[in-house]
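Why do we bother with holo predictions? Because pocket geometry can differ from the apo form. Keep that in mind while you read this record for N-(5'-phosphopyridoxyl)-D-alanine.
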Amino acid sequence: MARYAYVNGRYVDHRDASVHIEDRGYQLADGVYEVVGVRDGRLIDETPHLDRLDRSLRELRIDWPVARPALGFILRELMRRNRLHDGLIYMQVTRGVARRDHAFPTTPVKPALVLTTKNTKHLGADPGPGVAVKSERDIRWERCDIKTIALLPNVLAKQAARESGAYEAWLIDDEGCVTEGASTNAWIVTGNDELVTRQTDNGILAGITRGTLKKIANDLQLKLVERPFTLAEAKKAKEAFITSATSFVTPVVKIDGDKVGDGKVGPTARRLREEYVRFASEGEAVT
Ligand code: PDD
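The structure, written out:
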């Protein structure tokens, strides 16, 4: 079966999909993206993902490449063509193609839109054995709230984590606090059963999974506190976990080689994973 990509108005064979060498995304990382999870043929949290795309575009003063309802149609059409059942949809918008200059083009250019899909294994309620994380200095810029394609510090941190045998990097700011993961949000459960995750500001990406989990935690009447937490506090926590569109709720059982709690998946992360999967099973299936 051919796998399709969507590139600027056309569904093309993924192997032949390409963009211009002077696309400002390619040359200057002048663009934004979204990753929407798909489970059992259902898009997870489509509306908040498109809301965040809208915000990212506004922050960079890039126009929508197509009307928002059209993007909803393209998402579904690509899912159907690729028979995407479990995995993710990647969407990228860049400022478009122009002769290289740091400043925005002075003549109007059409923003470039690219969509691809990726199949992954079906994620269920069982979180598995948990993962290890490695701390890395957060060397990113001061607008981490914008979901831009400029991800080099995230790439380097993730690579350092992987080379040390860890799954994710936790980024540490100048105060010794964990901001977030290289591609996930970071959470801990404290000794007095408080669920803690950093507040959303320019220092982190406001994860859509994070937002949904806040509502779930509220429904479960868990005590949720949004504040910074240090790496030392995380190492002493009862539980820790990460969230993202692609990892759902994944328990963290080791930080820099030290066990979190007893080194096993804890009840809070397990419960939140179950509830998140329940939430992801709601809504209409596309494929
Ligand atoms: N990453 N923080 C960062 C830096 C991220 O890149 C992501 C998502 C998140 C979690 O956000 P959400 O819950 O909306 O997925 C937090 C995506 C999955 C990626 O880059 O592939």
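The two ends are 16 Å apart (CA to CA).
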